[in-house]
Amino acid sequence: MYVKANKFQCKVHFTEEKNILDVFEAIKTRRSIRKYLQEPIPDDKLEMIFEAARLAPSAGNHQPWRFVVVQDANRKKALTAAANSQTFLSDAAAVVAAVGDPEASARWHEKDPMIALEHMALAAAALGYGTCWIGAFDEDAVKRLLKIPARMRVVALMPIGLSNEAPDPRPRKELSEIFFKEEWQTPWRAL
Fold first, then answer.
1. Using CA atoms, how far apart are residues 3 and 124, in angstroms rounded to an integer?
2. Less Cβ crowding at N or C end of the chain, within 10 Å?
């Protein structure tokens, strides 16, 4: 099915699957998960999560990202050691290393992969899986373990798996504290 919006045409895919949350529900219910059930994720579900990353926007559409997906138990244990002994990495079904390519985008190679990772986090939440952003790791150790070329940048790790916890929502600031209208310190007021 094609939908015309202004002068742009885009293909819209509608799914019959009832177990997929809508995007706002995924945003509201997503949590940082640090306890996982040791169960695999079916490949078709993983590929849906990966597709969300592939479709993410990037500066100039350079797509300066690559992702290494780790499912091997021994390699996940080694990643745990490289990530300051964050042991929950070993329990997740998969750990994704997001890698930025400075040759593809000198300025945005670290930021663009993070957009793609957030797409993955929301897609995982929509499918009933948990994730957690990991920024504390030894980049050189991760590169050695995953055979990532020296010129590339490992920007984050993200475990994905079935949650073995249900954390409460974390407090969030009010819109008026973080959005300003027209200039700094003029609080946003919804009409």
1. 26
2. C
